[in-house]
Amino acid sequence: xxxxxxxxxxxxxxxxxxxxxxxxxxxxxxxxxxxxxxxxxxxxxxxxxxxxxxxxxxxxxxxxxxxxxxxxxxxxxxxxxxxxxxxxxxxxxxxxxxxxxxxxxxxxxxxxxxxxxxxxxxxxxxxxxxxxxxxxxxxxxxxxxxxxxxxxxxxxxxxxxxxxxxxxxxxxxxxxxxxxxxxxxxxxxxxxxxxxxxxxxxxxxxxxxxxxxxxxxxxxxxxxxxxxxxxxxxxxxxxxxxxxxxxxxxxxxxxxxxxxxxxxxx
Length: 266
Description:
Elements: H1 20-28, H2 35-38, E1 43-45, E2 53-55, E3 69-73, H3 78-93, H4 98-109, H5 114-125, H6 128-132, E4 148-152, E5 157-160, E6 163-164, H7 176-191, E7 197-200, H8 203-214, H9 235-239, H10 246-265
Parallel strand pairs: 3-4, 3-7
Antiparallel strand pairs: 1-2, 2-5, 5-6
Helix pairs in contact: 3-4, 7-8
């Protein structure tokens, strides 16, 4: 099967080599999973001493015309890299095709760690399981993965001076590299799921998706803003009363999900 992704097909030529079809040999050759974080093999741009460092993770944006929902984070980090690499190496050793390797890596690592539990908790409460006719959004990372696209404003892992990047410094829409990811890669990924409900998780993903709305990649009625990013730093907003509290937004989020369900089903 020929691998297609928003990176390999982008008019942004620098990105064409930043996908599994060019980097699977490097994945196989890693001495340890931590080499994906510390070694040169998967470094795509910059370095630890630079203002921004980009590292490959097996989250290539694949066409998903039948997806019902797109979940947009900021960028993968160390936790996701540490989970994605072993899953991908195992899939490669089994001889799976490139697209299936990507799916296995995403299933293991997308919004991995404690974030996933918080994300599932929120998505279940806004009524997404009923809208998708599933028991819980937990299955979007397993048996029902075909219903969802899990992605980020920048699909590969970004670090600033060795730390996970928060999308603010440098600003996602002001740094030339991250802006290109939004306008070229994320935009194409959203075009590939034309009927999906797009849920940006937090302020930075919302900025990225809004830019895609401005360029015509996604219609504004498809976008559901107001769901916080599921990082531990937001636990006060997610589970408590720290403003803007998730529970205060919940009735409006439930109403909008129900309205999307009615429109999607008609």
